Amino acid sequence: MRRLVAASGPVDVLVNNAEHCETPDDLESLTAESLERHYRVNAIAPALLIAEVARRYVSGPPPAVVNVSTDAARAFPGQLGYSTSKAALEALTRATALDLGPRGIRVNAVAPGPVQTRLAPGALDHRAGRPGGGRARAVTPGGLARVPKSARKSRAEKTA
Known about the structure:
Distance between the termini: 49 Å
Number of domains: 1
Radius of gyration: 19 Å
Shape: elongated
Helix content: 25-40%
CATH superfamily: NAD(P)-binding Rossmann-like Domain
Strand content: 5-15%
CATH class: Alpha Beta
Number of helices: 4
CATH topology: Rossmann fold
Strand order of the largest sheet: 1-2-3
Number of strands: 3
């Protein structure tokens, strides 16, 4: 962080977008090492980065923090370490927002839902047939920016 600030100046925005997810990740495969890997990346690293950014903020426009979570933080079967570590990230987001808000530092989380990537082809297939699964199409990284024509409405249409 010291080198980053020296080279680029103060941090304006911190986006904690790293994630660690293993399969299998169920009760049968649970180990202390697996939980530690999930929590180190999904909760501990963001906590340490937020603390470092907050410590370095002295004056000027306050930085903003965005933590990327997931709908799995609500607990999905077979995702024990991943979902509980992302739930910890959401708790961290709420706690640091309360602590840092008086200093003007905003801390928020977004949970965009599953994204089908080439690194995990078919990874979302397991959700079909589950409550809440199979209703929405899988989003691909290239599809995140595309808005279907049916969703494109003018401001006048939306307020009418």
